[in-house]
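re: ur question from earlier - yeah i can do the single chain one, its not a big deal. heres the input i used so u can compare w yours
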Amino acid sequence: MNDSRPRTLVVDDDPSVAALYKKTLTEKGYDVATAATGEEALAKLHTSQFDAAVIDLVLPGIGGMEVVAATRQMDPTPVVIILTGYASLESAIEAVRYGAFDYLRKPADPQQLVDTLQRGLASRDLLSKSQRMLAELDEINRRMRQTQATLQERVSELQGRLETLMKLGSRLSEVHSPQAIMHHLLTTAANLVQADAGVIFRKDPSLNELSPIAYIGETGRELREHSIPLGSGVLGQAAASGQRRVINDLLSDPQLADDLLVYEGMRRVLTQPLAVGTKTLGLVALFDERAQPFSTEDQDLVAMLAVQAATILVATGTVRLRAKSPAADEGEPEEFVDLRSLLSD
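and the output i got, formated as tokens:
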């Protein structure tokens, strides 16, 4: 369809009338097709797309109103003008009910027909533009609501993380033992990134391995029983490289099939070296079975807490896990050695 020349169908069983309207409209820049019967009109409507249709109300065979109704069923956008030699209130109401833009009494003046078509096409274009604008406005509103919901969720998440850090600060101000501080740091890190389990390892250069000194979660408890050779598996490689690392789908990598974390059923892991300068003292590892990936922000939060954990390792020197004596403080995590006693070693 040529957008610059409105495609118009003139339906009239009087050849002279059809020829007059076609000539007039063609001279006004319309691309005009004609039909002498309702059947012929429907056939052309089925095979071509029209911007407007001028339809005689009285036609042999299928009547004009039936053609209007069929036109509307096939495409609601064409401007429809009814021509009738028997204008009445009833026919006007019926024409509007069937979707006609206007109706003219025959014999309609050609210029009147042109003016009516122009008004109809202008009205259609305005309606189409309004509908597009409303659709765009609805889409903008939808996106704004979505953005608002996302922002609210993000604000809630950040508030939760801030509260977690504030609680950590409060707890650290109330405790004086290195082991309790380490436990709070590990617990806070896990809460911030929504991890179910974790371990803090100390790097033991003399044994060339990682030794667990703190844990949370059932899998953390299991890993407490293991020493991890440096360079071996996900955790050993992370400590050897001195680089933080995230793997969000351990189970999909066939090269990790024998890894200790995979054996424990873990799906994702975040590792953060405990470093002072260029020296790696240990490793924080957080992991669980969730499919939700760890983010860069998660890594940054853990890195911040790892600085404090590294400071504790520097202050305590050699840190080894040992059994807790029956007389020890019941509020002290059992996985921690009394690091204060090591300060004098």
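The CA atoms of residues 273 and 283 lie 4 Å apart. not sure if urs matches, ping me
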